[in-house]
Amino acid sequence: QVQAVESGGGSVQSGGSLRLSCQVSGYTSTTYCVGWFRQGTKKEREGVAAIDVGREITAYAKSVKGRFTISRDNAKNTVYLQMNSLNPNDTDMYYCATHSSPCSYSSYIPPHHFDYWGQGTQVTVSS
Prior knowledge:
By secondary structure, the protein is an all-beta fold. The chain has strands at residues 3-7, 10-13, 18-25, 33-39, 46-52, 57-60, 68-73, 78-83, 92-99, 116-117, 121-126.
């Protein structure tokens, strides 16, 4: 079965950086997509970034473009989200998710496309 497990969350001061990791298992090829999402208690899910693992095509939400970078290490079956210049508005629970098709998203990354979700990792940015 396909699984995605995220890690790397924590607390950081405004302007700082964190790197989240998503370990993916269960696929037999690189034909799949991985996305990062965030959701607070009173907010809808927001697609933050996505990557077509096989083709290394990336997409970013407008709110994070230029600050966050998504990448993959196929040898480790791991997708990373490097988050720089963090601000308190980035505080949320962050989720890694995946689906078994290619993806070429723009600034909108649709949560309903993704089938397998991790448990989440908390990111807290203080001012």
